[in-house]
Specification:
single chain, 326 residues, alpha/beta, 5-stranded parallel β-sheet
Amino acid sequence: MVDYKGLLVNTGAYKIFESDFIKGKLSHAYLLLHSDGLALQEFLKIFSALIVCENKTACLGCRKCNLVLSGVHADVLSYPKDKKGLVVADVNSIIEESVIKPIESNKKIFLIFGAENMNATSQNKLLKTLEEPPENVVILMGATSDSPLLPTIKSRVKRLEIGAFSQESLYSAIQDGSFDEESLKNAINCSNGTVSDAIFNYESRDMSSVYSFAVETINSMQSSRDVLTFVSSFFAKKMDVDIFLSALAVIFRDMLVALEGKENLVKNKDVYNKVKDAKGYTRGALINAIEKINQAENRKKFNANGQMLVEWLFFQILEGKYKWQK
């Protein structure tokens, strides 16, 4: 079980929210931003647990906290109901429920998950409640991005943001003795600082094999013929393109910081030691490789053909090696 509270309590977002609560100055509405949608749901539950907790600490052990975590607390209502995005029917429910007094607590709390998926009609309908909320109502909205939200919505909520987590904090929160230590660390290295990506990487693919292939590619790819061989091998092994790109980016980033005399910043020392003597990777070649990986990741988002994408990337990395030779 992931220790979401352990991750959350050290963030600036939680400290602001906790301070508001302790001072009795909770805003009527908050917008919590974080790139990991699943973790975001857990964070919002913990925020609401703080408000209703019998010990006033979000202890997650008392009866009221357990009710919140189980999704059955009478005064903590979650939306959307069908998990497909907030629709007008959900907003109507929020409006109707908001005028009903709390049953067990002194606050009625509305959790809106995936707020970035609200359509314009739903957002506009929610505006009046945000502008003139009934007494003792707190609306907690969670979104992976605030770009889809109307300016009028954003102007009526208190914005809190949680960035990427450090590898150390993720490892501490996830490792419970049931994970293989090395595999988990490799998965976290490629997680972009999120719980969901770390667990997905760990469960969906043997990260050691992904890193082994990346190491072999970096050390041995010297010619155009090698590119075609490695591309063929990549797809024969049925590797996940996204995970491979993340692993490759971590390795090249480690090679670059080490080359600049900052070996203490290397994330994966075991893997770095296997590529540190790879030929042709000057500073310019490494920067080029990292830039091309970023471009590949962006192309992947627009459904670029996987095989053509990997082939293009390998050729770009190889070309950079020769272009930036000393």
